[in-house]
Amino acid sequence: MEIGIDSFAAILPDPATGQVPSATIRMAELIEEVEVADRVGLDVFGIGEHHRAEFLDSAPTIILAAAAARTSQIKLTSAVTIISAADPVRVFQEFATLDLISKGRAEIVVGRGSFVEAYPLFGLDTRDYDDLFAEKLDLLLALQESTNVTWDGRFRAPLSGQGVYPRPHQQQLPIWIGVGGTPQSFARAGALGLPLMIAIIGGSFERFRPLVDLYREAGKRAGHSPEVLKIGIHAMGFVGESDAAAKDAFFPGWAHLTANIGRERGWSPPTRQQFEVMAGPEGAFLVGDPTTVTAKILQAIETLGGTSRITFQMSTAALDTAAMKRSIELLGTEVAPAVRAAQRLNTLA
Fold first, then answer.
1. Would you tell me the crossing angle of helices 336-348 and 290-303 to the nearest 10 degrees?
2. Do the beta carbons of residue 7 and residue 53 sit within 8 Å?
């Protein structure tokens, strides 16, 4: 069971003054967060991809490469790479280079992106949202398998056997599929036999169980063994010294970002009551003290029929850097060992 962190490199205004902190300082703090995660024994650190003012992660492989030079054990992944808006050849080259720098610690989580800013930015039509993803994933998987690829598609110039270099340190770069709540995405990942990273950023874990079952059934029908059909969860999460402290550190940034995005999408303004429900026993937020968070992780694992990885999206607490680093420490030194010990006991039982 792997436990880690995903960051969107959020840069949030001070709620009291409205002043936005220095992007340079925030980036330095982010690299320090990866260092702390590595030091306390967490398994993975992911950097998202957005093209918005609220986030500094438009070039995630560069951030991951900087982190690779300052860490030694932790896996480094995207969370997610918007493959639909990118050139798969360039994506492969960048992550293969990251894999060489990190000596085999690079992974890719690819998806279509829940934000669409990348599409017009790179001259793509959102009406091709599904077709872009399917075609470019196909090419990325071909590059994973072979140095010299012959390939033809609609959205990119064909390849006629050219070599794509460098090759990664690992025999194959691990590629995960990042999904939200679309059944077709779960079925496609299962049919391809690719590990699945599910973004569960609201509601409950229970409502995703039918989709997880769909993924596993599609994989089984395609002839893939259960061992390759790995499930990962990307969830909103934060660990504090107490439940109240964790909530107070996480809520202001969550409310700010949710309100901004909600205005664009026609949502009602977020409330503290909504947040408390999501952080409560039935909600999908992993926010609280180590005991609370451990219990909720174990509950999520059971609800989904087993998971291989859980990553915490805790960027919204970036205003309090000391609390952020302490949260990472608690996740690595208290929560992760407790989850693994409980799983060992279940295995022996």
1. 40
2. no
